[in-house]
Design goal:
Rossmann fold
Length: about 100
């Protein structure tokens, strides 16, 4: 990916609290958070099989994917990893995004 996709992060989160926090992390790193379109990095909230399918699509399109969800939803976290994402519990997603954007 090139151009704008390199300086943006796709944030797919239903939870407004998490979305706002992740957008703030992206902006602090000088990266534009977007809710549609192409980006080299995508952050996906795990809400079930549709989100796992979306992860597969993003990975196949060449995006690096960071998935997050409840620590009790072990099967969703595992499915996200199997689909090619780094999957972390909600409590770790901000730190994981900061690390990715810094590197």
């Amino acid at each position: 990916m090139s151009g704008a996709a390199e300086r943006s992060v796709l944030i797919l989160a239903r939870d407004l609290f998490f979305r706002a926090k992740l957008e703030a992390v992206a902006r602090a790193a000088g990266v534009e958070p977007i809710s549609r379109g192409a980006a080299s990095l995508a952050v996906v909230e795990l809400t079930g099989e549709p989100s796992v399918q979306r992860i597969r699509e993003l990975v196949q399109a060449g995006a690096d994917v960071l998935a997050f969800g409840s620590h009790v939803q072990v099967e969703w976290l595992r499915a996200a990893r199997d689909a090619g994402a780094e999957a972390v519990p909600n409590s770790q997603v901000e730190a994981a995004l900061r690390r990715r954007l810094a590197g």
